Amino acid sequence: MENTVVFEEPITAQKCSENLSFVEDSIYVIGGKWKLKIIIVLQENGNIRFNELQRSIPGISARVLSNELKDLELNGFVKRVVHADQTPVVVEYISTDYSRTLKPVIIALSDWGKTHKRKIKENF
């Protein structure tokens, strides 16, 4: 049985445009090769140091990871915690409560990806 989307109200051109804008904004914030991987690792591991985070994501360079973390912090998905009372200074990254609101989205994307992969394999 095909899944159908039921809209409570008719979709107008304005509402469609608005929804597309929201989707574009979402993809802009979490899109790219690394952001969701970083978010998922942080959600699974809790507090994690930079080098450990880098080892958890094969193929990511330190420079790219640093830039992505800054972006994610700016958007409220990651919190950088500095423990200055320790020698050497320890910096950890944690996912925020706001970041955890993405969990249902990540699960939905994963489920869709699994279904899509199965469908593609059946057609070829």
Automatic annotation (TrEMBL):
This is Winged helix-turn-helix transcriptional regulator. PROSITE patterns: HTH_HXLR. The lineage of its organism: Bacteria, Pseudomonadati, Bacteroidota, Sphingobacteriia, Sphingobacteriales. It comes from Pedobacter vanadiisoli. It comes from the Bacteria. InterPro entries: HTH_HxlR (IPR002577), WH-like_DNA-bd_sf (IPR036388), WH_DNA-bd_sf (IPR036390). Keywords: DNA-binding, Transcription, Transcription regulation. The keyword Ribonucleoprotein does not apply. Residues 16-121 form the HTH hxlR-type domain. SUPFAM superfamilies: Winged helix' DNA-binding domain.
